[in-house]
Amino acid sequence: QVQLVESGGGLVQPGGSLRLSCAASGFTLDGHAIGWFRQAPGKEREEVSCISSGDGSTYYADSVKGRLTISRDNAKRTVYLQMSSLKPEDPAVYYCAAENTGWCGGEVDYWGQGTQVTVSS
């Protein structure tokens, strides 16, 4: 069974950090770019970061540049999203997704179930 399972979400104070993980099972990450998306209440889902399968090139949305770092460990079938300097506008459900090509910008093959990130003092 193909699955992507996110973990690491939670409550953090403004300026704090979280590390999200996305673990794949039932398929290998090889050949799939992996994206992190987020959706806040009343807003559309947006892709905030992506990492390619081949050379590990990365993409970050302007709203998160300099604060988020994406990485992958294909051997562990896991992709990470290190989040720092979290802001009040960052709370959302964060989803990871496996895209149908090795390069970012493709269609999504598989979605995870999401993990909630809350930023509050």
Find the structural class using helix and strand composition. mainly beta
Mean pLDDT metric? 96
Ends: how far apart? 39 Å
* Count of helical stretches: 0
The residue ranges in which pLDDT falls below 50 over 5 or more consecutive positions are: none
String of helices and strands: EEEEEEEEEEE
Number of beta strands = 11
Q: Characterize the biggest β-sheet.
A: 7 strands, mixed
Shape: globular
Q: Which range does the strand content fall in?
A: over 45%
> What is the C-alpha radius of gyration, as a whole number of Å?
13 Å
Percent in helix: under 10%
Q: Could you characterize the architecture of this molecule?
A:
The chain has strands spanning about 5, 10, 20-25, 35-40, 45-50, 60, 70-75, 80-85, 90-100, 110, 115-120. The protein is an all-beta fold and about 120 residues long. The protein contains no helices and eleven strands. The strands form two sheets. Strands 2, 4, 5, 6, 9, 10 and 11 form a seven-stranded mixed sheet that branches. It is globular.
Sequence-ordered SSE layout with sheet pairings:
Elements: E1 3-7, E2 10-12, E3 18-25, E4 34-39, E5 46-51, E6 58-60, E7 68-73, E8 78-83, E9 92-99, E10 108-111, E11 115-119
Parallel strand pairs: 2-11
Antiparallel strand pairs: 1-3, 3-8, 4-5, 4-9, 5-6, 7-8, 9-10, 9-11
Characteristics:
seven-stranded mixed sheet, 121 residues, 11 strands, mainly beta, four-stranded antiparallel sheet
What is the gist of this entry?
The protein is mainly β and 121 residues long.
